[in-house]
Amino acid sequence: MVRSRPRSAARYGAAAAAALMVLTGCSSGASGPRGMSSAGAPSASAPSPDPPAWSTCGKNLECATIKVPQEYTEPDGAQIPLAVMRHRATDPDHRIGSLIFNPGGPGVPATETLRNLPKTAGTPGAFSPAVLARFDVIAMDPRGVGGSQAVRCLTDEQRADFGTAFDPAVPGGKPLPRLLADAAAFTDGCVEHQSKEFLASLSTDNVARDIDQVRSALGEDKITYYGLSYGTVVGPMYATLFPHRVRQMVLDAPVDTNLWFGNSLTFLNDVAVASERTLNAWFETCRTEGTAVCPFGAGDPQAAFDALIDTLEAKPLKIAPAKGTASGGELDGAMALEATRALAGDQNTWPLLTSALLAAQDGNGAPLYTLWSSVTVSPFPVPTAMFEAHTAVRCADWQTPAGIAAHKAAAAKAVTEAKRIGTRAAYSALNCARWPAPNKDRVTEPLTGAGTPPSLVVAGRLDPVTPHHWAERMTRTLDSAVLLTREGVGHGSYGTNSCVDSAVDAALIHGTHPADGTVCETDTPATTRPLVPAKR
């Protein structure tokens, strides 16, 4: 994608003024549950859906669509479609049941993840052959995501424009008037493309109710659940609303659910600090290895990185057109920072990061540009279709301050506590501050999962998105849980570490857990030597 250079902020003045009025006057929609029974389920009961009409859609894959109520307080009202996919147990004679999973985001289509499962072995969330043998693995695209009526807020032209003109030295990447104008355009676009009622229904409690509709349609009395990242919000919600329906639950790279439903600005600050720590881990490793192993920066990688970002922002590197394309692009400092943030967050990609930074330093921006273009998941705004669903779900859940002063203070805090990544996090909740479809009956009670079997909570010591202390708090919040820690850098542990894999397989298949506080070691990270993951 060709990226245009900064434009005058004057053209955004009117939209910015309108956005400011909304920011200072709108309600966060953070009222307590409404129309709910004491158990947290809708007071009106939704009819059980018909069994899925499965059709073959790939090797050992079946697809179907299940209709569910848009609002469970109005079960006979508007219905919405859910895309569901099933990977049949490879050992049906020893099948345990159905395992429903959520791969995170929010906004990642579970069906797409399941379809690509054979290609993603060795990556977070990839199920082992033992699990695939014993379970029908069920992927449900959450409402508003993927094949389940995906949220659309921007045109292709707008999405490309939103991704331009970021400045890595400016909180939020753009001047505040431009950010406010972007927020106005984004949220206005959301209600242009779908109803406010639909947007308000995208909350995690409704996703949990949808899962129970899928369970019912499958004819299962109980489900086994695996959730990664945002999937660790969905799992505890389901376990809290439907504790008698949970057989076993594993929560990988857990979110602090109290913080998710609390102040979103604190949540985003924690994420920025976590990403900064993983980038600092790469810097420290490079420095410790010495210039013979890690030549970037000649012994001072931090200074060299900052200089490279400044240089690229002042004079972006031109990228030649890829084979079969008419135009190339350019690599600027903001793109380099975002690619580095993503690659530094997984110690297995550190060698790629090192070589790409060295190439950019030598005037070849193609490797880093290619890596940037493949980064599609971020906790902060990026110009992808997934970000639209991501924003819609979190705005339905979050309690976001309406006043601009709170966002200014949070931006200053993020930049202070996370020198480099804080600029990416700053002002990234503006869309939710002016969200046009407040969810007035969202579930706000602690997600304890009381009444379910003990959950296995798996956390990385240096996770770039969900810091370890979130896992510690989740373990305390859940009524019964065991914490397993994986050393090292990375977001998500199951599928990447043989020690974790064994523990998760045992929990899912047999319902057995390691001792609380168990630690799994990992290979020592290196900036230039690819890690070879242990065999499962």
UniProtKB/TrEMBL annotation:
Residues 1-29 form the signal peptide. This is Alpha/beta hydrolase. Residues 31-53 are annotated as: Disordered. One of its GO terms (molecular function) is hydrolase activity. Residues 421-520 form the Peptidase S33 tripeptidyl aminopeptidase-like C-terminal domain. It comes from the Bacteria. InterPro entries: AB_hydrolase_1 (IPR000073), AB_hydrolase_fold (IPR029058), Pept_S33_TAP-like_C (IPR013595), Serine_prot/Carboxylest_S33 (IPR051601). Residues 31-47 have a biased composition (Low complexity). It comes from Streptomyces tendae. Belongs to the peptidase S33 family. Keywords: Hydrolase, Signal. PROSITE patterns: PROKAR_LIPOPROTEIN (PS51257). Residues 99-257 form the AB hydrolase-1 domain. The lineage of its organism: Bacteria, Bacillati, Actinomycetota, Actinomycetes, Kitasatosporales.
